[in-house]
What does this fold into?
Amino acid sequence: MRIILLGAPGAGKGTVAKLLTEFDGSVQISTGDILRSAVKEGTELGKKAKEYMNRGDLVPDALIMQIMEVRLQEPDCKKGFILDGFPRTIPQAEELKKLLDKLKIKMDFVANLDVPRDVILDRLTTRRTCSNSSCQEIYNIKSNPPANGGKCKKCGSPVVQRADETEEAISNRLETYNQKTAPLIGFYEKEGLLKNFLSLSSKDTVAEIKKALKG
It folds into this structure.
């Protein structure tokens, strides 16, 4: 499969992407992951990206697209890939379209994960993350609580509520999403690639996406 996942923060893109990789061996690709990987490997592009990241600046689209071009040509992408949370803006979508044409890659569709605002707020305000930077396991105090005493089940470190997962911070993130990323829905609708999925349960969403792929 070759799909793009769209959706607001808390729509479940990461979980859905992970479950889809288990389905057919496609790889999950997020901008954060490819940037961190390029920096870690010390590639020329990674070194350039690191300069921006060290200054706390956003990595420019042109550089992200160069790193994305390298990533999409790696052997593990031959089976398929899921772009998780990329593109984020219309200019990125336009550049991605050019890149896919250049690489002769045809996308199956763009899956927009649609979740009501109150569900997103509930999901994110109840989310907790392992404080160990090399673990970062995610929990939910309602549906997947950590071990007793608020400890990570994997490594035993304390779990914490991230600063960007308070109700106020989430409202700000949703506002940013609506301004910058939501217009992508219209962009991909015009391209004839958009499919909407109500994403209240990751397993149900994955089942619907699989059905759409077969269809």
The chain has one domain: 2-26+79-214.
